[in-house]
Design goal:
8 copies of one chain form a homooctamer. Chain A folds into 2 domains: about 110 residues, no CATH class; about 130 residues, Rossmann fold. The first copy, chain A, is built from 9 helices and 11 strands. The first copy, chain A, starts with a helix and ends with a helix. In chain A, strands 8-7-9-10-11 form a 5-stranded parallel β-sheet, with helices on both faces. The first copy, chain A, is of the alpha/beta class. In chain A, α3 packs across α4 and α5 packs parallel to α9. Helices cover about 40% and strands about 20% of the residues of chain A. At the A-B interface, α1, α6, β11 and α9 of A face α1, α6, β11 and α9 of B.
Amino acid sequence: MDKDKVVKLLTQLSQGDASVETVYSEMQHLPFKDLDFARVDTHRALRQGFPEVIFCLGKTPEQIIAIALELTKNHNIIIGTKCSAEQAKFIKEKMPEVSYFAQGNILFWGELAGKPKLDFTVSIVTAGTADLPVAEEASIYLQAAGVAVKRQNDIGIAGLHRLINVLPQLKDCSVCIVVAGMDGALPGVVAGLLAIPVIAVPTSVGYGASFSGVTPLLTMLNSCASGVTVVNIDNGFGAAAAALRIMQIMHKK
Amino acid sequence: MDKDKVVKLLTQLSQGDASVETVYSEMQHLPFKDLDFARVDTHRALRQGFPEVIFCLGKTPEQIIAIALELTKNHNIIIGTKCSAEQAKFIKEKMPEVSYFAQGNILFWGELAGKPKLDFTVSIVTAGTADLPVAEEASIYLQAAGVAVKRQNDIGIAGLHRLINVLPQLKDCSVCIVVAGMDGALPGVVAGLLAIPVIAVPTSVGYGASFSGVTPLLTMLNSCASGVTVVNIDNGFGAAAAALRIMQIMHKK
Amino acid sequence: MDKDKVVKLLTQLSQGDASVETVYSEMQHLPFKDLDFARVDTHRALRQGFPEVIFCLGKTPEQIIAIALELTKNHNIIIGTKCSAEQAKFIKEKMPEVSYFAQGNILFWGELAGKPKLDFTVSIVTAGTADLPVAEEASIYLQAAGVAVKRQNDIGIAGLHRLINVLPQLKDCSVCIVVAGMDGALPGVVAGLLAIPVIAVPTSVGYGASFSGVTPLLTMLNSCASGVTVVNIDNGFGAAAAALRIMQIMHKK
Amino acid sequence: MDKDKVVKLLTQLSQGDASVETVYSEMQHLPFKDLDFARVDTHRALRQGFPEVIFCLGKTPEQIIAIALELTKNHNIIIGTKCSAEQAKFIKEKMPEVSYFAQGNILFWGELAGKPKLDFTVSIVTAGTADLPVAEEASIYLQAAGVAVKRQNDIGIAGLHRLINVLPQLKDCSVCIVVAGMDGALPGVVAGLLAIPVIAVPTSVGYGASFSGVTPLLTMLNSCASGVTVVNIDNGFGAAAAALRIMQIMHKK
Amino acid sequence: MDKDKVVKLLTQLSQGDASVETVYSEMQHLPFKDLDFARVDTHRALRQGFPEVIFCLGKTPEQIIAIALELTKNHNIIIGTKCSAEQAKFIKEKMPEVSYFAQGNILFWGELAGKPKLDFTVSIVTAGTADLPVAEEASIYLQAAGVAVKRQNDIGIAGLHRLINVLPQLKDCSVCIVVAGMDGALPGVVAGLLAIPVIAVPTSVGYGASFSGVTPLLTMLNSCASGVTVVNIDNGFGAAAAALRIMQIMHKK
Amino acid sequence: MDKDKVVKLLTQLSQGDASVETVYSEMQHLPFKDLDFARVDTHRALRQGFPEVIFCLGKTPEQIIAIALELTKNHNIIIGTKCSAEQAKFIKEKMPEVSYFAQGNILFWGELAGKPKLDFTVSIVTAGTADLPVAEEASIYLQAAGVAVKRQNDIGIAGLHRLINVLPQLKDCSVCIVVAGMDGALPGVVAGLLAIPVIAVPTSVGYGASFSGVTPLLTMLNSCASGVTVVNIDNGFGAAAAALRIMQIMHKK
Amino acid sequence: MDKDKVVKLLTQLSQGDASVETVYSEMQHLPFKDLDFARVDTHRALRQGFPEVIFCLGKTPEQIIAIALELTKNHNIIIGTKCSAEQAKFIKEKMPEVSYFAQGNILFWGELAGKPKLDFTVSIVTAGTADLPVAEEASIYLQAAGVAVKRQNDIGIAGLHRLINVLPQLKDCSVCIVVAGMDGALPGVVAGLLAIPVIAVPTSVGYGASFSGVTPLLTMLNSCASGVTVVNIDNGFGAAAAALRIMQIMHKK
Amino acid sequence: MDKDKVVKLLTQLSQGDASVETVYSEMQHLPFKDLDFARVDTHRALRQGFPEVIFCLGKTPEQIIAIALELTKNHNIIIGTKCSAEQAKFIKEKMPEVSYFAQGNILFWGELAGKPKLDFTVSIVTAGTADLPVAEEASIYLQAAGVAVKRQNDIGIAGLHRLINVLPQLKDCSVCIVVAGMDGALPGVVAGLLAIPVIAVPTSVGYGASFSGVTPLLTMLNSCASGVTVVNIDNGFGAAAAALRIMQIMHKK
């Protein structure tokens, strides 16, 4: 949804700063297209160049294709998250132009920007190799939005020297996304050494009492280091979106 | 802890950019004072003017006093969070200069800055009156750090017109902290209407199946609006600290 | 909140059926009073004569009094739910006109209507004596709204003959609210014998593996009899409010 | 089970209003057929024209067929819920006349009534496209019972303008069923804007901390808007059955 | 409830073996007394001499007294379970003839039978001293019912020799009730050495990850030794009642 | 394990009633055969004619075969529980004499006794058709042990008349095993009408908030009717074993 | 229990290496004293000089005194754990010679050894000041057993330099006990830097989503660093006992 | 990571005992190799001859191969844990020299040492045959590290004589690892009879209320016998690593 527009219209109306006619006609052309099974926000953030996102989990491939077709009318970058290999195979046969990043379970319509358009760098750190898919989801979404991404993989707290080694690079970024499963202790350690925003992403990596990500989620919420914020388990996209919110307020100022 | 200093020393050492003598003598004077039962970070963020924080839960009043006495040697603003009325009463008898904000369970040594020193405003929104203590904790900490705070209380989603009414004010802030118990749905609705960072704080307000804050915590982690980040239940201080991290990166840029 | 009014204004505006001036001036006078710590919906359901409700849990007695004072300007019946004996004692000293129903933890400003104004009867059934407080909460709220209530207490499934004995009376009501703790099996048995709406209220009555109401809540959600709906643990008020929604649609038709 | 009949017989007996002979002979012909592995309620609601329902989960296809054959002796509309594609395939080979609605996992014997027989309309709203199967289950059952259904899909709270757009249509219905997964916040927002009965259905749509529907279930039980009732996760049929209970009492009055 | 009587009447009626007149007049005198807040089963098990039971948790002292007064009209032994010291104090002032067994939280009207009337012995074994209150509840109820009880306390599995020492006595009983908190392992070990019925009672004794009895409950449900059955946490009365059911079938044969 | 023998040896030794030589030589020949991956209790209950049991879950087919071969040396009836179709297929190829009861997931070596040898009847009641596999497990084990079994299927509480219809038959049995999933309310209703031992078996039948059997398990543990005992989810064998313990004590007396 | 003795007797008997007479007379004098409510292991570890332990939670002060009196007949050091201030006050009035360490909730009969008798040092590290009571419990028990203890308090991972500072001291110990609440991340970091046994003790310190110690417990069980073992929440005594087991095997070798 | 080296370097630097040049050049050659998706600790424990470990869960076969190739440059024994049959098949095709132990899901590069190099024996006891895979994981890792292992399988507490039979062998070991699912009671019984360190490993063996290993985990944490320590569910490797930590401190002394 084009938040600014809707908010502006609602407040203009509630404050008497706009005539009903103007508002109505604007509303007519605005926000969504009803595909019966989905209402597509066709104008969401059009001016910002941010990629549109389709959450693929639980949708049929046909539904994904229909939504994508509608979105391509107004956007040049579209991303599908949590897309399984089977869904991707079916879609690719109908829409050969789509790219599928299997590691991050991401569909991609358009082109990954050659070089970042914005002075804003996000570092993405993973605790282990098995956390890569979640980091990949965050990374591709940020890159598609024109944000520079630095990756540091496999920095578990069991080998602190690996973390100390990359600290200088982390310090120079605007935001640090830390992706970890199992004990989920890495974001707390990182946040104890950095003053920048740290967004923690628990992953379902682990077994037994990691309970599909519940353990790292709880660890991160209880982090001793202050100011760590957390998103849903395996929600790399959410962490990236939170980083974009920070970017937006920085560029607005 | 003075993060920059420690990180710099560690990396200088690991890269050979500093002699051991320099590092050692710097370390001697640096980071903490061992009170036997606590190691006080006496220099943490000295230059930034940020308030020092004592987490009072589980400490004896005597321990809180001893830590405060040590911290006052180097800081002029100190805050104690999660401080019960009993703890506060005992401490106030020994240290009459301390202020106690009963609603937010906060001890305060020093003075709340007259007017914000920084161009950065945080709005704090509560879903109900019972969420006020948690909002108060965030608010006092931010104000002590010299940040302007705008408060909007009792904006439950059961009365959307109250939310729409305050949207324009929320939009002009740098960060929005949303505090909610029971169903915890407010942060998702707010984030759907704002493009700025939204930090959600679940509270233990409610009864029955709100499970002392578990329900709003889960709701917030699953927010339909993208980019909402979450902190621990009742952790107003944590949300404030996350907002300060965003402020730090904005002022550094 | 006066739902009809707000919805009408919003849709008139979005459809161009009302001028901004009209809407704006209506909005000025309308929905809430900002008490700083609370936004009071002063007009909510004014025309319907339904009682206004203050959720007392987590509010200070002073806050409850201030909200009540504001509400009394426009309402003649006000109810406070989940009000502890201590809160009630403090409030009663300042507002001697308030009644306190200790069993249901309810404050009451105004008068319980002498006889029901509406052709709509709700039966409230409890499984055990300890479930009475929750049933009382539902009962007083319904009576305050002018609805006839029939009470049947202590109808546990361990003595089916007690249930069979009251079936004819239950059948003649419009809605049946069933309140049960421990195994929570009663609503399913009742719903198997009645065709009218059955609203189940789990209570925190029990010990050990009843887990403060979780067990009856789960039992009710999994009821073998179809069409049982459920509200939060100990939420007698919620069940009554759901019954009122059914009454509203019946009287509208 | 034909509730009225059984209740009437039991109470007549317990009150002495019927002779044993009458009761006995009535009982002989009445309620069920023992298929050894199942006791089929052959007369349940015969006069009301409501569809009979077979809960397919955990039954073998052979058992489903045997029950259906028995039911067809007395009913012209039969529905099977939670029927997997494999079960359906097997059954369709033996009973080609059955229809299978794959999206809602529903088997259907008989014909969907051309136009509603009753003056009672139920709106079914989904928060996202992935919630469609559960909404479909509710919808087909209601239509089979001769109830008019209005569908509104993909009305997430992240885009409030989509909800405001359909409010007028929702207001004119008798009951609103709201189906939502992930954060489950939609029913609370809807109930804050409507005075009609709102039945909330949590779905297992989501991942990570949505815990297969536990999160939306808890959110709905704690809804800030009063009078929302809740059914089991993914239980579209249950919500429809609850709506039919409301319809029954309305038409009886 | 006098089960045999009700079942007999219901089946006679459903089979035409009794006239309505007989049934009706029998029903008139039979099963309960409505005290408004409670329906007292005045005849339950009258002929068997089993004690009547009042579950005191959540009842007011006045309610307990009223129920007891009603029951004393037809019974000479009445027991109140889960009765707090405060409740007992209040009741004892009004009814000085009542005895209060503080350890088992039991009220007792009547006299503990001098010597067992039945050839049936139940052994009650506790794992630790802190499990005594739950064992006491079971013990008093059984003794009041005229059953011989053998007690063996503090037989933890950490000292197997204590268990082996009492095995011969346990073997000679009809039923063994095993009461244990913490790890709850004792019933499984006992059941591995005995062929008689073993009823396991988990207790809320313990701390940390014993979760108020959840851990011993789960341990007992998963017992490696086959044929262990389990009752609710701290439910000594329930275990005793289950033992009485076994006694009843033995004496009937 | 041959309990009597081991207990007798241990107590004789601890009381000095047997010489070491006797004990030692008895022990040499006695209890188990070490197959390296399993220690087979070759003499367990040899004199009682009870079937030996192999818990197949988690064992390889080869391990099951080896254990069965060892057991057949001393037993003529052997049962394997929780045996998957794949395991059974593999085993049947190597041991064609084995029978596989697919519904109950049971392997069977030997012959189901033509007619019960013991005067002891167990009724097994299921709430729904999907509970049959668990009931089957209990039934076959009991029949193999020479116990008469009466089956009553699909007696859900949503149709009480079906339950009342079979009450007379249930009353005449020695023990009643009640198998139920979803809301798990049936055992409590049955126990309210019967005085014989009632053993409740929760099943994983259901979906959503039935949580794979947790809900019926909790319901049963909190049963309002006193004296219901419970075994693990889906543990039909455990309920049967508990019934056999009751039988043993009855026949011993 | 004197493990060696019991095991030796049992195995001698099962192997024929001892006459029944010898065993019997030894058994007579051996292991426990039956106080009716408790069976006291009077000889447990007498020769090792290890302190005897009374778990006070759930015991009456009178029971604690009786057990202590029995134990003092054979031991000179006795410890009571989890003893509340109220229990201690009552006991101290009857037994003035007892010491009460309020911070660790420990009773102490005897004298804390002046200097360690054994070449074995245990370091006890706490993450925060509020973890001290649990560390104290471990510390006093170890000291009472003659083991040297090194304490390092308030070493949270938010300030890594504090940990690095004490590493050399930790390295020189035989075992490291790490006590932490909240996120529970410290043991994993410590274990990544040390090769000695690390025993992790989660504490109930924290609030909100720390769930009274569940979060640090889960974090520790999922530690990335290999070989960390864990004891129950707040179980300082258990960690100390595990350290003593290691000491025993070292001194035996 | 080569813990001694890193700790030594860090402390030398922080104490001024080493020049930066030495430290820097040492660091250059030291700890890890960055493979982009993983940072391999190439020197970890090189001198000790301990096997290097790759945690295979969640890694692609290609990643496992790449890490293994890097590790083989410096190690002669490498182990991969939690490796599925599919992963193993793929890897074996590319690296035919690898061995796959299917029961323990372990990859093995190198040779299992012919005879133990160290005077340290670990006994591994399983409660049931289905626990073997977890025991196998521990066993192979220990043997690869040159430690003698004694295996005792299928020692459930339902047959205590099997446990008593092997006690003498367990007593002579240095450490006892006890692996159990279902009720998880075995470690507590074993620890009650042994004075050596007991490390408990819960397994996911069981069904229903064993909750994939949660039940044995909780049982073990609450063990009545003192000093039992616990690792994650199914974490045989972790138990072995904890045993190695004990061995290291013993050999150092």
